[in-house]
Amino acid sequence: MTAMIHELGLGVSGGKFGTISGFKEQINCFARCRFDIVIRDAEDGTQTYIKAEPIERFKVWFAQNPDQHSFWPSEIVLTEQFYENLKEHAIPYNFQAMHDIQNKPRAIDIYLWTVQRAYRIPHNKPLLMRWKELHDMFGGELSLKHFKVKFPKDLLAAKTAYPELRIEGHPEGYIFRQSPPPVPRTQIAVPNPL
User: Fold this and answer.
1) For residue range 29-86, what is the model confidence (pLDDT) as tens digits?
2) Which residues fall within 8 angstroms of residue 75, CB to CB, at 6 or more apart?
3) Which of 83, 173, 164, 151 is nearest to 119 (CA)?
């Protein structure tokens, strides 16, 4: 845990308001979360609802002192469905980029969405995201009018963290084009034992 906090570029501190306390709280929130995914098919008007729980079992021991090692092993067991989905569709994101925009929650959401989405856009078919669609995904409690003012700043912060992202403004929203992932794929050569 301490190594991960360091990798995120945060100082490691204990106590009620230290980074360890906040990190533990976020891990516990993630362990309890459930995803309800709704896929709308524009062609036939159908909707598919998917209940996706990422964690099957969660047992983590947190040391009170940041320099103290764990006395008991920790275990996080992912559900089979979530694990298989990660293997099939995961795109690595850059931890340092997350650090650079850590105080901008909407920018983080945009960054994570663009990281997984821009890589999958066909190179010959750019994706037009209209204001209404962007507002549905990232608007939260903002009115559409206020969202249109705030979104470009958050998109710019996400783009700063993901410089490979290819986007352009459009009167109806933004056009997203296929972009390389922020962390390039690596291949490992395994020698044939024969």
Assistant:
1) 877 777 777 777 767 878 888 777 888 888 776 656 656 665 556 778 888 888 887 7
2) 57, 58, 59, 60
3) 164
- Give the predicted TM-score (pTM) of the model: 0.66
Could you identify the residue written with the tokens 């291949």? Answer: 187
Mean pLDDT of 125-147: 94
* Cα angle for residues 77, 82, 83 (degrees, 5° grid): 65
> Which residues are CB-contacts of 117 (< 8 A; sequence separation ≥ 6)?
127, 176
Three-state secondary structure of the chain: CHHHHHHCCCCCCCCCCCHHHHHHHHHHHHHHCCEEEEEECCCCCCEEEEEECCEEEEECCCCCCCCCCCCCCCEEEECHHHHHHHHHHCCCCCHHHHHHCCCCHHHHHHHHHHHHHHCCCCCCCCEEEEHHHHHHHHCCCCCHHHHHHHHHHHHHHHHHHCCCCEEEEECCEEEEECCCCCCCCCCCCCCCCC
